Amino acid sequence: MYLVLAHVVADFVMQPYELVKLKQRPIGLWIHSAIHGLLAAAVTAPLSPRWWLVGLCVGALHYPIDYAKVNIGFNEGPASLVAFLVDQAVHLAVLAVAVLLAGLPLRGEMEMGSGAVSAVFYYAVPYATVTFAAAIVLYQFAVAYGTRSNAGDLLTPGARLAGYAERGLVLTLVLFAAPVLWW
């Protein structure tokens, strides 16, 4: 769960449009991969003495995966969406390998400090995914199926902020208000 949060933060929160464009050059890929490796190491450090191996694995493997995605040429139509989804699936598989390298269990709950800290992470994963990653998923759908005349409009700061607020509110209602209504 912690590595998934680190991945979502590195791939969707800490990757501004300028870095997306810079990834067309090796320096951009190195910067982005280093961010992934550092965040993976940071969230693994309290859980495993092999945190450095996790950071190295995640960072080193992120480069060729993103290099392939950037250079494969699927930037339009449904192939763009498929390339994005395959890219994310491969990254999640790398995280599973990193967990095994760290000697951590793939199943079960890992406590990081107090129960309160783990609870924060428990809710941070869906919130970060729904608010930030969903913006890129919606953009990919718009590119794939031409639902907007200019899909780039979805990535403007105002549209992204409004989308974050909408998706965050809906998730809050689903997580906290809906269970109350079921009683």
Descriptive account of the structure:
With 183 residues, the protein is mainly alpha-helical. The two termini are 29 Å apart. 76% of the residues lie in helices and 0% in strands. The model has no long low-confidence stretch (mean pLDDT 83). Helix 3 runs antiparallel to helix 4 (51-71) and helix 5 runs antiparallel to helix 6 (115-145). The protein has one domain (2-182). The chain has helices at residues 2-13, 17-22, 26-44, 51-71, 78-101, 115-145, 157-182. It has 7 helices and no strands.
Structural class: mainly alpha
Number of domains: 1
Task: Give the fraction of residues assigned to helices.
Answer: over 70%
Give the distance, in angstroms, between the N- and C-terminal Cα atoms: 29 Å
Percentage of β-strand residues: under 5%
* Low-pLDDT regions: none
Shape: globular
The string of secondary-structure elements, in order, is HHHHHHH
Largest beta-sheet details: none
Tally of strands = 0
What's the helix count? 7
Return the average pLDDT rounded to an integer. 83
Over the alpha carbons, how many angstroms does the gyration radius reach?
17 Å
